[in-house]
Input
Amino acid sequence: MIVTLPTLGAIRDHFPNAFIEVMGYPAHLELIKERYYADVVSRFDQLDIAHLFVKDAEIPRSFRERLCQMELIISFISDRDRIFSHNLNASNARCIHYDPFPQDDKGIHIVDHFLNSLSSLGINYTNNIPKIFLNDEDNRFGEDFIKDNIVGSKKILVAIHPGSGSRQKCWPVTRFVALINWLSRELQAHILVVSGPADQGITERLKAGGNKDIVLADQLPLPKLAAVLKRCNLFIGNDSGVTHLAAALGVHTIAIFGPTDPRIWGLGAIW
Output
């Protein structure tokens, strides 16, 4: 989601008076709902949308009529068998389809890949830096979380996310344990560990590493997590959405890359 924010921003800037609906996964959509980029968001896992992934599916009339009410649909769905795009086109809505994944051999950063796809619409962009919009409620949560959980006179607050969407992209837990102990011992740092639904096993191993002063930010909604991360002095994590989130917030960020290409998926000099 973070790497698409400049694209959503370019669309909003080009169509300032448009009513923009974004479909996606619920947890990700919280970052953009009524936060400049989207007027309304819709769950991508709803039943009507599921029909679009079924070959020769009969699209429910009410959903087909809803699609036709949209003046333009821009799809960044991975659709190698073309079933989704075929069904969407059959609804008679005006649709434009783009491959969400850049070609590895070109070395184009993912942010620029998404932005370049808008050229066919005559949309030119001047800003490729992701921006997060937090509201007052988010910021109050962030302030209260730090006030309630970070106690003492230690100088810096370091956030660490030891997980990722793929286990292959994860730095060994033992190294995170050693890093946390070093930060705590040498820098007298507070340590905030970010944990999501897929990170429970990793987090438990991290907590068992011996450092009793770890503060856990466990499964926070993304806007709330963003408000907490914004108040950290440093973030360290694997190639993950949370790492991109921290960088987009302007937090000093160290990203650890393994099998993925940082030319494409890295935080980049633009950040």
Summary: The longest strand covers residues 190-195.
